[in-house]
């Protein structure tokens, strides 16, 4: 039986990151993948959907500025767009493949092996791999499980990936549907509502079981996103519950029940169900193995599972499902096994972007989370209309909001940026949170001009009472208040 220092199951972002970190330690590593290299980081997931989003943004810009750019009435070709998305997916996969296959040539012979097949953990040191008719076993000192997640299904919805899709099947579409209902207005649902409505060929309907879209996000953020979706003709169903969905010939019929008890039936061409994701661990462990798992995933203590030489990283674990988190955990697990982690595994300063219209970037807590944790805090915000770069972009929709502790330290708790270039504006704050630094550093940093990040600096200055623009004058655009025990108090003195 072939023996490795570490065997990693699943070559998505978490598994790939772990494998590459093991190479740094000059360990003999096998990376096993049953389907496609890159997992949901590339296919039907992050890169794939972000390529669609980028294309849809350009399409929307052409529609919006049609008259000025002389591109009025432009039609978009689904097949050509889809082929561009496929090129992006292929490009990234080729790059990772090339990189992977040359590790042994460029670094050290025999260090790394990529094995195609379906893996099962037979005992704490043995993994069985099934590839077509062939079954082999390999052994390892350590095993890292990085098998990711898949879309959550609802038993009452007949998903067939032809008419009623999950994000895993959506690339089977051959044309823009004329109409589409999206069930689940979380991140995936709202990103696809943005994409389809940007192209303008699809009437999108959006339903969530919560009473608004993005139920986990702050109301002021959601308001901007809802306004833009509705401006692009998206129908957001409110105060309603999906009670039935079925195929009727070539159409999908769904029934909503409203809070007053009345019902209404809608017919659309296609449906997308995006009601969360579930960890993928079916058949992964021999039944006699005592691995602790709950509905949210494998239970781990800083990536180590209940079986000491087996680690779990990425979406398979019961925490945040993001590419950057999977990579962080994959690298951490290897450092923990073969060395000493360079820094503790903390999730407080994880940055995220939701690719909507406009984009929403965040780091740390939002107000819902701060309030749920019982904290009193100070919050400042500045509207994009006060930021010269936004004025130059001719798009001043959006705002920057920072929450800090309500004491003399004013420790940064979190931030949300809603608007163009939001993603590039949050990194400075993410860094400050991770360095446990406060708003003084933020207020003193010199930023390029004109840039969106100048708005963040202005928020820092506002907290110190020395902003360039005075909130007492620009009351419609600048906010400075405290929150405690369910109440806001305005801090702007006029
Ligand atoms: C539509 C969509 C958009 C997203 N957009 C973003 C985004 O913009 N930013 C972001 O940070 N995150 C995004 N995500 C989330 C992100 O894709 C995941 O968090 C990330 O891919 C998880 O990485 P992972 O390695 O844990 O799992 P995965 O990427 O799921 O990879 C797991 C791999 O393991 C393989 N595998 C499973 N079982 C076995 C087995 N028994 N044997 C061998 N191999 C096996 C699978 O085939 C798969 O390739 C998105 C997800 C979706 C679905
Ligand atoms: N930009 C990004 O970083 C990005 C993009 C896409 C996905 N992701 C990751 O993928 C994960 C999964 O995304 P997702 O959108 O599937 O999950 P989600 O948790 O973001 O949203 C699921 C939504 O479905 C709703 N819902 C649940 N059951 C329902 C029902 N029966 N009827 C109607 N609505 C229902 C929930 O209220 C929620 O709003 C995210 O949590 C995120 O970690 C990240």
UniProtKB/TrEMBL annotation:
Domain Pyridine nucleotide-disulphide oxidoreductase dimerisation: 350-458
UniProt domain FAD/NAD(P)-binding: residue ranges: 4-327
Cofactors, names only: FAD
Keyword tags: FAD, Flavoprotein, NAD, Oxidoreductase
Record GO terms (molecular function): oxidoreductase activity
Pfam family, one: Pyr_redox_dim
Superkingdom classification of source: Bacteria
Keyword Oxidoreductase: yes
Enzyme Commission code: 1.-.-.-
UniProt-listed SUPFAM superfamilies: FAD/NAD(P)-binding domain, FAD/NAD-linked reductases, dimerisation (C-terminal) domain
InterPro entries reported for this sequence: Class-I_Pyr_Nuc-Dis_Oxidored, FAD/NAD-bd_sf, FAD/NAD-binding_dom, FAD/NAD-linked_Rdtase_dimer_sf, Pyr_nuc-diS_OxRdtase, Pyr_nucl-diS_OxRdtase_dimer
Top enzyme class: oxidoreductase
Family assignment from sequence similarity: Belongs to the class-I pyridine nucleotide-disulfide oxidoreductase family.
PANTHER family hit by this protein: DEHYDROGENASE, PUTATIVE-RELATED, DISULFIDE OXIDOREDUCTASE
Protein name: Dihydrolipoyl dehydrogenase family protein
């Amino acid at each position: 039986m072939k023996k490795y220092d570490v065997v990693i199951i699943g070559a998505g972002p978490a598994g790939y990151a772990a494998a590459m970190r093991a190479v740094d330690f000059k360990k003999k590593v096998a990376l096993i993948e049953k389907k496609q290299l890159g997992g949901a980081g590339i296919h039907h997931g992050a890169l794939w959907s972000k390529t669609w989003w980028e294309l849809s943004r350009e399409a929307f810009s052409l529609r919006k500025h049609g008259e000025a750019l002389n591109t009025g009435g432009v039609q978009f070709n689904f097949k050509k767009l889809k082929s561009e998305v496929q090129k992006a997916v292929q490009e990234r996969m080729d790059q990772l493949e090339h990189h992977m296959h040359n590790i042994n040539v460029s670094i050290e012979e025999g260090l790394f092996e990529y094995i195609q097949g379906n893996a099962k953990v037979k005992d704490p040191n043995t993994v069985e791999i099934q590839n077509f008719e062939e079954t082999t076993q390999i052994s390892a000192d350590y095993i890292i499980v990085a098998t990711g997640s898949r879309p959550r299904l609802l038993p009452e919805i007949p998903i067939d990936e032809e008419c009623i899709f999950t994000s895993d099947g959506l690339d089977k579409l051959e044309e823009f549907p004329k109409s589409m209902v999206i069930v689940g207005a979380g991140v995936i649902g709202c990103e696809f509502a943005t994409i389809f409505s940007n192209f303008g060929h699809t009437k999108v309907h959006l339903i969530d079981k919560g009473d608004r879209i993005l139920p986990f996000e702050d109301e002021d953020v959601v308001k901007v996103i809802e306004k833009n979706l509705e401006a692009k003709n998206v129908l957001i169903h409110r105060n309603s519950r999906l009670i039935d969905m079925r195929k009727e010939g070539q159409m999908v019929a769904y029934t909503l029940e409203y809070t007053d008890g009345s019902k209404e039936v809608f017919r659309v061409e296609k449906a997308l169900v995006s009601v969360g994701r579930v960890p993928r661990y079916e058949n992964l462990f021999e039944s006699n193995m005592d691995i602790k798992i709950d509905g949210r995933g494998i239970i781990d203590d800083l990536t180590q599972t209940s079986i000491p030489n087996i680690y779990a990283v990425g979406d398979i674990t019961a925490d945040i499902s993001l590419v950057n988190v999977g990579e962080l955990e994959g690298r951490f697990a290897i450092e923990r096994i073969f060395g000493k982690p360079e820094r503790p595994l903390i999730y407080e300063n994880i940055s995220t972007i939701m690719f909507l219209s406009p984009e929403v970037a965040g780091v740390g807590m939002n107000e819902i989370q701060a309030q749920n944790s019982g904290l009193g805090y100070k919050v400042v915000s500045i509207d994009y209309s006060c930021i010269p770069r936004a004025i130059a972009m001719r798009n001043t929709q959006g705002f920057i909001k920072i929450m800090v502790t309500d004491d003399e330290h004013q420790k940064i708790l979190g931030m949300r940026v809603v608007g163009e270039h939001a993603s590039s504006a949050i990194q400075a704050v993410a860094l400050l949170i991770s360095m446990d630094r406060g708003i003084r550093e933020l207020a003193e940093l010199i930023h390029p001009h004109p840039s969106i990040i100048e708005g963040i600096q202005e928020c820092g200055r506002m907290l110190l009472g020395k902003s360039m623009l005075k909130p007492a004058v620009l009351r419609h655009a600048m906010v400075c208040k405290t929150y405690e025990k369910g109440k806001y108090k305005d801090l702007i003195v006029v």
